[in-house]
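Continuing the batch. This is chain 6 of the set; chains 1 through 5 are on the previous pages. Same settings as before, nothing changed between runs. Recording input and output for traceability.
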Amino acid sequence: MNQENVSLQSMESDFVAKVFIRYLIPSLIGMLMMSVNVVIDGIFVGHRLGALALAGINIASPVFSVFFAMSLWIGIGGATLFSQSIGAKAYKHAQRIFTHSLVLIFVLTLIIAAIAYIFRVPLAYGLGANSDTLPYVLDYMTVLITYGFIITIQSSLSLFVRNDGNPNLAMISMIVSAVLNIILNYVFLFPLHMGAQGSALATVAATLVGAIVLFPHFLRKDNSLKFVNPRFSWKLSWETLTIGFPSFISEVGLSVFTIGYNLALVAWAGTAGVAAFSVLNYAHSVMLMLFLGMGSAIQPLISYYRGAKLRLHELQTIRLAVITAFVTGVAVFIAGLIGANAIVSVFGEFTAEVRSLAVMGIRIFFIAYMFMGINFVMMTYFQATEQVRVAIYITFSREIILMVIFLFTLPYIMGTNGIWLSIPISEFLVTAAIFIYIRYKNKRENALR
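Output for chain 6:
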């Protein structure tokens, strides 16, 4: 048996907690570096180009989210099927799944990018741009649309490398991308004066290098990932897209979140509100990456255990993940209460109005993190065990349905505080619904035994 398969087989023999930590730490480090990278982007843009450019890039950020969503949709769907096949010892089928997924993500990304490029101006206005922010939005967005396929390929490759028992290389790829992006952002924004376009080019170039870092894994003879002759399959495409759909909705939901908050804050607090939200959104990206890292850590494990029919290992893994997510969320909520002013100051000098809005927003919004991490890992669990309907319910409820309802009703009761509170209430209600569902399901299963 080759080296990488030995690493995968150790999932069955090692303690679950040991395997969980072995995947969790690299995933968290990699995602933390990506989130720090996003924050530093914001710091550079805020200090070099000002609050208006920061708001413009924030408005354009859903474009990145859509490409990332595409990579997660097909990447996690394919990686889940891949790990299940490895767990079931069906190695040839696993290699076919890998090849099929990479071809599928590349083709779909090109189609979406072509459509977005043609309609980029109305798209910018639809995302919330106005005459002040439009130039920054278009500069940043056009680069992302043109080179979006690099983002999706790098993200998908990273997922498969992690699922092939090599989480450390996936981590290294993210670290290299993050560090290089920081360096290029500084060079493009300050010495070269390239503006918002330079910030986007830095992201794309760094992502490309991160993808190159992953390629040695596929060239080694002792791994489970092999490129085979690509053969399109409607059945495999449907399975991949179905399983990965909750991840796609999760990322699309992030775009809905950004657009919804921008529109609501423009209406209730004007440009100052959008600038305040851009600060909060950069801080929010750190937590999203950490929770996404937790999900990325457990997905290969849950998928493999499901394929190997190791039910107890599944349950132990998800319990560890839920505890980790909750403790992390509580710690961040406390940090937000205490350090809101310091967080805002990191992103530059703002008017008193913007600072006041951002500080209050952080203190209220951070309540959500006590529940958001639990929702992330539970969604991943249901997705990896092919309980897709439940995973979709979690994602739609927390990021789209409930959020939109509260976002456009609470402000009439509580003003801008109601906008900040929309996500915390949504996350809490979904967490409560998950635990009610699990309790009901366990009671019904026990009654049938």
